[in-house]
């Protein structure tokens, strides 16, 4: 169906005609795993057509942002119709059964509604194109022809209603003809969108070219329009080819004689004929559009794998600042840095993550070793300690990890983790306290706002499950269910425990009474240690409560206990935890979930066949912290400089001044100043470069300055500039920077 190809090309022309902001096309395939394939294909085709388009970013209307969805629905329905017809033709059943007619009718009705919405969307863009042209001269003439010759919104809507009535009456023959008539209406509307978009882009130039044939008043209108059109839109590579095809078509027709309005009407009629599917030229046009989209060198703009992102400019400034704060906190506590491979032997990772093991990225066998991308930084750290026979180690690591997860908002397949771990024999609960203290320092110094650290103890959980009557072999799998309580209601979790994991309803209900317990650390601890408490009668939970008492006293003395909440629903699903477990949650408006987590894992290192080495650690989910920091910056209307450049050397001249720029900039660099240079014959370009990059100081050098042996130093904020000797300009810059 040619309409499915042409409507994308025409819509692309309209985007350029109204200079629309088309950045929303980039977000159609968001990488979250739930993508509208046809809409994504339309968006991708539109981006191919618009490569190189220079948008003024005037804003985006619904008629622009809805293009991928509306045009995508037409593609989807046409494909479904083709499939349905092919099935019916090959079914081997003679004649049309009632069921077949209804099945085809249902699919064709989808085509009718897709045409309705496409026509409405196209009409909106027609009016946007006419608005851009104005209400005088060419714009007025084209608007008058549009009102006379283009089907109106009422004609389109009534055409759809008539078709729909025929379907309800089950008059399938007339229904089919009705849909064909509706298709003709939409064709005309799309053709008018192409005509108005083309003349909005090229009309003034075309009409100006035949100005000698117009009367004096009409010539003045054309000239007035030319004055208004100060800057011509830079077309995309694909759309520029389409525009040239239309121009060639009009040149073949020629200008002829008569006034401008007569000529305009003649051109409109010719273009309507050109866009008629009945004309052989139309097939050539459709084929040309396909070639533009499908040509190998511009087939598709590169795209990212789902669940990954690029970062640049201001985003990298925020990330680097955060990484610096995090590393400083880690070093303050005596940690040394460790780097491990991005992939490990598969056997190293398997059996460490419980039900989450299915999220490990396996790599193809490349010569006898089965490898997987690291899922976290904790297991590689444990492998390193075991492999090297280390018995005491305080380390930090900031690196990427990989998870074969279903991408969603705040959940990615590649992301950074920032880990701090303490391994070795230490005084009881000393490392556990320090780890929690490190976490609160990190979140305080990153200045993200209000948060809380939910804390529990794995042995307390085990004791609770034993008290409730859960068999020991189901402890870990039930903990995985309990760990979902931050995302699901207890009734949902209960259903999973009972129906999927075979737990008795009474046992699940008893678990429910305990996991609802949540309070400040000292208060809930006191409640659990009351005389007669079932937790004191269980060896596992009793020991956990004693350890938590030491921990809470230490946190209180270090003045960070106000950030901690004792929460019996916290389970942490990973298999390797053996003691204290915790999770930090952001309490601001940005919904990101957990931002950090960790706990004690005394047996993990010993799983690699070495002597057991107790350890405890924390992992900061830095990607979610970045999301919070970026949103806070937007909320505060803060701007971030993408560079740290202190001074811009601006030299008036052409490329022959590059050696001079090299000499002077090198002097700035040798003085350890952060500097850039630009050479241009245009003074405004030098100033714009400094302002765009928010560079505070400029050194301006022109021929006159060189003759006098001086340069100008300009403060971009105060606009004050001073002449200084060329021989000492570096020292003068340093003085102004207070260096």
Automatic annotation (TrEMBL):
Q: Which PANTHER family match?
A: HISTIDINE--TRNA LIGASE (PTHR11476:SF7), HISTIDYL-TRNA SYNTHETASE (PTHR11476)
Q: Which GO terms describe its biological process?
A: histidyl-tRNA aminoacylation; mitochondrial translation
Q: What is this protein called?
A: Histidine--tRNA ligase, cytoplasmic
Q: Which UniProt keywords apply?
A: Aminoacyl-tRNA synthetase, ATP-binding, Ligase, Nucleotide-binding, Protein biosynthesis
State whether keyword Protease applies.
no
Q: What class of enzyme is it?
A: ligase
Q: Name one GO molecular function term.
A: RNA binding
Reaction catalysed by this chain?
A: tRNA(His) + L-histidine + ATP = L-histidyl-tRNA(His) + AMP + diphosphate + H(+)
Q: Which Gene3D superfamilies match?
A: Anticodon-binding domain, Bira Bifunctional Protein, Domain 2
| GO-annotated cellular components | cytosol; mitochondrion
The family note in this entry says:
Belongs to the class-II aminoacyl-tRNA synthetase family.
**Which InterPro entries does the UniProt record give?**
aa-tRNA-synth_II, aa-tRNA-synth_II/BPL/LPL, Anticodon-bd, Anticodon-bd_dom_sf, His-tRNA-ligase, HisRS-like_core, HisRS_anticodon
Write the Enzyme Commission number(s) for this entry: 6.1.1.21
The record's section on Pfam families has: HGTP_anticodon (PF03129), tRNA-synt_His (PF13393)
PROSITE patterns membership: AA_TRNA_LIGASE_II (PS50862)
Native species? Salix purpurea
UniProt domain Aminoacyl-transfer RNA synthetases class-II family profile: residue ranges: 283-642
Query: What domain of life is recorded for the organism?
Result: Eukaryota
């Amino acid at each position: 169906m040619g309409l499915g190809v042409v409507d994308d090309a025409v819509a692309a022309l309209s985007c350029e005609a109204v200079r629309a902001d088309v950045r929303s096309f980039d977000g159609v395939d968001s990488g979250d795993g739930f993508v509208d394939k046809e809409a994504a294909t339309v968006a991708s085709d539109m981006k191919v057509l618009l490569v190189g388009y220079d948008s003024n970013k005037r804003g985006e209307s619904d008629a622009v942002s809805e293009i991928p969805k509306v045009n995508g629905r037409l593609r989807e329905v046409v494909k479904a119709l083709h499939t349905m017809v092919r099935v019916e033709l090959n079914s081997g059943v003679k004649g049309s059964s009632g069921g077949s007619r209804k099945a085809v009718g249902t699919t064709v009705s989808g085509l009718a509604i897709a045409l309705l919405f496409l026509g409405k969307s196209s009409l909106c863009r027609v009016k946007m194109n006419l608005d851009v042209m104005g209400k005088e001269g060419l714009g007025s003439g084209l608007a008058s022809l549009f009102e006379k010759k283009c089907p109106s919104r009422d004609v389109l809507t009534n055409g759809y209603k008539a078709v729909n009535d025929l379907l309800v009456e089950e008059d399938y023959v007339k229904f089919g003809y009705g849909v064909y008539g509706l298709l003709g209406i939409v064709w005309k509307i799309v053709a008018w969108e192409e005509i108005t978009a083309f003349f909005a882009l090229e009309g003034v130039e075309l009409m100006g070219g035949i100005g000698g044939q117009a009367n004096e008043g009409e010539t003045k209108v054309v000239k007035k329009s030319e004055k208004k059109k100060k800057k011509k839109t830079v077309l995309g590579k694909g759309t520029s080819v389409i525009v040239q095809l239309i121009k060639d078509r009009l040149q073949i027709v020629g200008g002829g004689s008569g006034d401008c309005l007569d000529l305009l009407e003649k051109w409109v009629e010719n273009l309507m004929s050109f866009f008629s599917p009945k004309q052989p030229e139309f097939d050539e046009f459709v084929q040309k559009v396909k070639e533009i989209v499908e040509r190998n060198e511009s087939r598709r703009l590169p795209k990212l794998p789902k669940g990954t992102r690029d970062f640049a400019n201001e985003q990298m400034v925020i990330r680097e600042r955060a990484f610096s704060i995090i590393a400083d906190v880690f070093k303050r506590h005596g940690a040394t840095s460790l780097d491990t491979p991005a992939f490990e032997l598969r056997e190293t990772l398997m059996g460490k993550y419980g039900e989450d093991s299915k999220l490990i990225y396996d790599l193809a066998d490349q010569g006898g070793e089965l490898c997987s991308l690291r899922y976290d930084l904790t297991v590689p750290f444990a492998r390193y300690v075991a492999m090297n026979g280390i018995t005491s180690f305080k380390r930090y690591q900031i690196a990427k990890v990989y998870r074969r997860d279903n991408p969603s908002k705040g959940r990615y397949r590649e992301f950074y983790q920032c880990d701090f771990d303490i391994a070795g024999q230490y005084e009881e609960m000393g490392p556990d306290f320090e780890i929690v203290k490190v976490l609160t320092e990190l979140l305080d110094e990153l200045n993200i706002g209000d948060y809380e650290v939910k804390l529990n103890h794995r042995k307390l959980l085990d004791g609770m499950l034993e008290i409730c009557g859960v068999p020991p072999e189901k402890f870990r799998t039930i903990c995985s269910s309990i760990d979902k309580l931050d995302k699901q209601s207890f009734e949902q979790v209960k259903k999973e425990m009972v129906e999927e994991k075979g737990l008795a309803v009474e046992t699940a209900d008893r678990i429910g009474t305990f996991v609802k317990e949540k309070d400040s650390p000292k208060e809930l601890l006191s409640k659990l240690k009351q005389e007669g408490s079932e937790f004191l009668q269980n060896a596992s939970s009793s020991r956990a409560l004693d350890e938590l008492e030491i921990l809470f006293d230490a946190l209180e003395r270090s003045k960070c206990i106000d950030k901690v909440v004792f929460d019996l629903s916290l389970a942490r699903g990973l298999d390797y935890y053996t003691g204290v477990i915790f999770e930090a949650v952001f309490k601001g408006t940005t919904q990101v979930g957990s931002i950090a987590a960790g706990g004690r894992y005394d047996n993990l290192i010993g799983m690699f066949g070495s002597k057991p080495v107790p350890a405890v650690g924390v992992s900061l989910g830095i990607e979610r912290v970045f999301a919070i920091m970026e949103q806070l910056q937007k909320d505060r209307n803060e701007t971030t400089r993408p560079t740290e450049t202190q001074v811009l050397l601006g030299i008036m001249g052409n490329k022959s001044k590059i050696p001079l720029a090299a000499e002077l900039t090198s002097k700035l660099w040798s003085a350890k100043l952060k500097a850039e240079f630009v050479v241009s014959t245009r003074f405004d370009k030098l100033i714009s470069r400094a302002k765009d990059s928010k560079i505070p100081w400029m050194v301006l050098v022109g021929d006159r300055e060189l003759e006098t042996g001086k340069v100008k130093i300009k403060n971009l904020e105060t606009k004050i500039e001073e002449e200084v000797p060329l021989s000492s300009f570096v020292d003068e810059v340093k003085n102004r920077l207070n260096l």
